[in-house]
Amino acid sequence: MGIEKIREAVLSEAGKEAAHIIETAKKHYASLMNIRKEEIASEVDRLYKARTSAIADEFNRKLIQFKGMAGKQVLERRNLLLNALFEKAREMVLSWPAEKYGLFMAGLIEKAARDSGGKLRVHRDEKGIFIRILLDMNEKRSPETRIVLDESNPLTKRGGFIFVGTNYEVDQTLGLLLKDIKQEMLPIMAKELFSV
Q1: Does the model's pTM come out above 0.70?
Q2: CB neighbour list of residue 139: distance below 8 Å, 6 or more residues apart
Q3: CA 162 to CA 165: how far, in whole Å?
Q4: Taking the CB of residue 61, how many other CB atoms lie within 10 A of it?
Q5: Which of 60, 88, 117, 166 might form a disulfide with 145, Cβ 3.0–4.6 angstroms?
Q6: What are the tens digits of pLDDT across the range 166-191?
């Protein structure tokens, strides 16, 4: 009986010790599981943030690239439209009746020459119009301030003239006049036509 009690006591003690070890192991396992879960959650969160940041960066890069290409296309299209518009204006001025064109050119000559004499370079096809203008204009001018055609140096394109004074030259060709107007009007027209 004594051995039986000892045996039961040892088994009881061993059972309690085993239960205690199992309980400690369960607590340790639960603690390790919680730590590992937090590590995994933290790693998943870090990966999620890194990947969403990479996606956002790639999206922003592509968006900037797209905006740049779209802006370039809009600018090219705008320039084509403006060039066509100014070419149409040039053609319109060149198609004016001779009297209207002559009055317009006479005003430009007066501004360019003022009280000075000089030579006028014009295109051969417009020589007749400018001869009439200069006949009228020179009637009111003194011999020193007369303006004559420079037939040795004709312009290569129709539209306007170049006035050559004694110490200055004024380009009043239609191409340059329209170019100057275009440069002045470009910001205003761009704002009106292409602002969003």
Answers
A1: no
A2: none
A3: 10
A4: 10
A5: 117
A6: 889 999 999 999 988 888 877 876 67
